[in-house]
Amino acid sequence: MTHTMNHSVDSRFLAVVAKRPAAGQTKTRLCPPLTGAQAAALYECFLGDTLALMRAVPDVERTIVYLPEREEDYFRGLAPDFTLRPQQGDDLGARLDNLLGHALGNGAAQAVVMDSDSPTLPPAYLAQAFARLDEGADVVFGPCDDGGYYLVGLTRPQPRLLREVEMSTPRVLADSLAIAQELGLRVALLPTWYDVDTAAELERLRQELRHLPPAVAAHTRGWFARDGGL
Hints:
Elements: E1 12-19, H1 36-55, E2 61-67, H2 72-78, E3 83-86, H3 92-104, E4 110-114, H4 123-134, E5 139-143, E6 149-154, H5 159-163, H6 172-183, E7 187-189, H7 199-210, H8 218-228
Parallel strand pairs: 1-2, 1-4, 2-3, 5-7
Antiparallel strand pairs: 4-6, 5-6
């Protein structure tokens, strides 16, 4: 985060959680039908499209929170216009809490973090996240139809909301909402979307791209043209 707090870009923080693609380690639930190399190349396209989505949201500080820690140069080459910060924490919940807590403790009035697995997510949903927080929500979630969420945003740190939920289960959102209710938080939900982790979701993405304007998810569309038979 920058430390000048006198203009709007510093009050709104938008981050994506990302890992450098690596064959055999990236998107392994897509293998098969994909090879390890194909899955890594596809994820790199997802990441490129996610960065483009983030660039479409005005007046935010954009950050990539990345792993592995040694890969700063890779991400700087990918997004020289973004702030970079290594992920810190033993699991995803801790990493999200550290990230959002750091942003909110360093000048952000609103902090939102999203995944990098939803390349066709409408940018309007990201803008809506900040609008819901403007309207008084304490927390905003973007639900995924697999029971997780593609986005979470806060106006102040909420460690329990992130650290006490077992991530990567079909109950992530439900468990998060239960804790939010226990804490008395005002919750806003964005429209439901999906992330691409399985062969069925990959096919859904392929079909969706056939009906979307060519400018949507340009990187992912290019991957399908080369490897996926769009």
